[in-house]
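Subject: for your reference before the review

Hello V.,

The reviewers asked for a structural picture of the protein, and I figured it would be easier to keep everything in one thread rather than splitting it across files. Below is the amino acid sequence we used in the manuscript, unchanged from the supplementary table.
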Amino acid sequence: MKREKSEALFEKAKTYFPGGVNSPVRAFRSVGGTPLFIQKGKGAHIWDADGNEFIDYCGSWGPLILGHANPKVVDAIKKTVENGSSFGAPTALENELAELILANNKYIEKLRFVSSGTEAVMSAIRLARGYTKRNKILKFEGCYHGHSDSLLVKAGSGLVTFGNTSSAGVPEGVVNDTIVVSLNNEEAVKQAFAEFKDQIACVIIEPVPANNGLLLQRKEYLQFLRDICTENKTLLIFDEVINGFRIGFDGAAGYYKIQPDIITYGKIIGGGLPVGMYGASAEIMGHISPEGGVYQAGTLSGNPVAMAAGIAQLTECLKPNFYQDLEKKTSFLIDSIFKNLSTPIANFKIFQIGSIFWIAFTDKEFVRSAEEIDGDSMKYFRILHKELLERGVYLGPSGYEVGFVCEAHTMDDLERTAKAFAEALAVAMK
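And here is what came back from the structure prediction:
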């Protein structure tokens, strides 16, 4: 595989950006080698600066559910940007996208558009605190909610702990209002509510944790969180920035049939452009300015180009059997990978929900918490990733990240990928 142009671009990028990238995981630190500089994408394929072609299962980390440069999305962007790219004022496109979402998602009544998933979660946390007039929040080890200060924390030692900062620059005072417990541990949650009675504003969870492995949770556990939050007048926040509109139009709330108090979304609703949103009941959302006292604003919120792209993409997602077909494709890919293996691999699993999948080198039937991931197993993924690139298959450059199947993946793409996986795994597991 040619790498000369990507290598030269990376050397130049290192003189401009910290580590040569504008987001850490792009640096290929987990898998080694030089990051690929992508030049174009079409359908389920991408091409790098050296002209190498790959079947893509990263999809810009999830939002490209229709594939790269979908004609309907591209056409909507072109038509909109010809009339201007940003106004800092309302447009009818905001109404149109909101109506499309609210008419097909019964779990929220009003919403607010923002510019990223991190901003959506940050705003949801502030809303929960303002609504409950409480300061503490409870999060789970292994769930990622963006890079705002109060959520860049990891668990300390003990069943229930205040978080330890996972980043320099996060003040201790901020961390002291964040309680961190393990996933899938009801006793830890009960203990937190007992220790901090009437102090917890919200419990925030990825109902489908998909940024530190695919840690699929039991419906009973999510229902337990719903019940204990209701009992303690604490708001339950579902962070669906990754899984929202991936496993169904009404996301994990609809999949598990559990009503959270606030939901955050991102990725897919912008058709590949920067966007996020949070939503709740009309009563809770009435506490957001200018109606209420919880302040949140954004110059680029509801950007018309992003709204147009989102309308085009979500309209396609509403086609009959759209999600069922994506799930079938993903299941076919996984089944085909195992069928192509010359010999079974005892410590190799692929976990799936909808069109999201995660490769794990484990012998566990389920992995439901971050502590159950064997960090040493990432040595296998490092080799697998390199070997897949050589065979024209692109995954996100970290074994903790998930993969995505999009509408544009063809059966030929999936079959070629399965064969490449079998060959790459044979090298990785030597």
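For the response letter, the relevant points are probably these. Residues 160 and 192 are 6 Å apart (CA to CA). The chain has a mean pLDDT of 95.

Happy to draft the paragraph if you're swamped.

O.
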